[in-house]
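in:
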């Protein structure tokens, strides 16, 4: 009982301090009109029997009105996307995001989550989902400390009602990093860093009327990386990542119940925004529902083309440029060389590649600091 009382007292003191901090900053409000807009051209030149090629040319537009006071912020707007050649807009979706930041290092967000890969690697979450899909909607918890950072979120991808002719779908994600030197493995990869990833997808629902099996698939991964400085603003490093996949459905029914994979990578990052990396990927019975399909064993063409073993040489170069505040130009190109197809002397899928050009503006258009408001009673 004594221990429980002490724990309760410490929690009460912590909550009181957080409330006091929020109260001190609650006397100033800001209102802002911002715009998140991106034009993209994403071309996949793929001939593999795992996945065929396609092109995604288009843009999305998100005007957002934001209001912040103290530890709270509110964002409301509209999302629309158009793919080149379509007669009408691809989609029109409302946006609402409410955030609470009780401390400088922790934030809770509920509603339409920001567009980001959130540190997940390509085998678990393919980059095109950031711009080609509608905004993620759900709950996100974000931690940002000097040595430890991470995000945990749920994206409710499909909502069902009684009698809906489809299944409920959602995804749970986790991306975290530990870096003793306080450096980010993406922005400034110096020294040692360790990452932990998790992606769990679910399709089903208790009021599901489709008679389809409930499907739950889990991906868990970890990455160890080390980077050194080899010149002014230039870093060189290596990483090794290990992943597992599992069909955790109530009645497992996927062709591959368990799988594993490893990715060994070397990278070079320059001050001018150029990043290059090369690696070797090997996988056995690996399934990755939200990742780049070329890393997995399941064929998107036909289950007759499933490949239990996957061995790829991967290479990618990315150039990012921010010419002025709010604008970002990004060009990426990559290669996937299938060693199994090369060994079989097959030209189909032996060397698949892609290139992507995006230009994004994400920043304020108008902003105003409002008069002080009286403290809450």
């Amino acid at each position: 009982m004594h221990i429980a009382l002490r724990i309760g007292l410490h929690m009460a003191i912590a909550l009181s301090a957080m409330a006091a901090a929020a109260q001190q900053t609650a006397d100033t409000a800001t209102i802002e009109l911002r715009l998140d807009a991106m034009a993209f051209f994403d071309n996949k030149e793929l001939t593999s029997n795992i996945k065929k090629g396609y092109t995604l040319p288009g843009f999305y537009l998100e005007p957002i009105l934001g209001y912040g006071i103290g530890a709270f912020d509110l964002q409301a707007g509209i999302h629309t996307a158009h793919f080149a050649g379509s007669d009408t807009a691809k989609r029109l979706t409302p946006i609402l995001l409410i955030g609470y930041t009780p401390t400088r290092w922790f934030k809770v967000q509920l509603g339409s989550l920001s567009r980001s890969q959130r540190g997940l690697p390509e085998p678990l979450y393919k980059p095109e989902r950031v711009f080609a899909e509608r905004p993620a909607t759900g709950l996100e918890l974000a931690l940002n400390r000097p040595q430890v950072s991470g995000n945990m979120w749920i994206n409710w991808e499909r909502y069902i009602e009684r009698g809906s002719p489809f299944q409920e779908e959602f995804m749970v994600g986790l991306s975290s990093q530990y870096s003793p030197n306080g450096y980010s493995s993406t922005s400034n990869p110096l020294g040692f860093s360790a990452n932990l990833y998790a992606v769990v997808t679910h399709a089903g629902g208790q009021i599901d009327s489709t008679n389809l099996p409930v499907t739950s698939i889990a991906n868990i991964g970890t990455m160890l990386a080390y980077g050194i400085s080899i010149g002014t603003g230039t870093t060189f490093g290596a990483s090794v990542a290990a992943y597992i996949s599992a069909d955790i459905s109530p009645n497992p029914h996927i062709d591959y119940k368990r799988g594993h994979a490893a990715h060994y990578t070397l990278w070079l990052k320059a001050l001018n925004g150029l990043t290059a990396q090369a690696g070797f990927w090997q996988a056995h019975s690996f399934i990755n529902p939200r990742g780049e399909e070329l890393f997995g064993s399941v064929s998107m063409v036909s289950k007759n083309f499933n490949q239990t073993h996957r061995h790829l040489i991967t290479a990618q170069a990315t150039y990012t440029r921010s010419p002025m505040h709010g604008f970002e130009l990004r060009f990426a190109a990559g290669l996937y060389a299938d060693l199994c197809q090369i060994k079989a002397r097959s030209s189909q899928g032996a060397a698949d590649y892609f290139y992507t050009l995006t230009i994004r503006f994400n920043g304020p258009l108008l902003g105003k600091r409002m008069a002080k408001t009286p403290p809450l009673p």
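note: Residues 216 and 249 are 5 Å apart (CA to CA).
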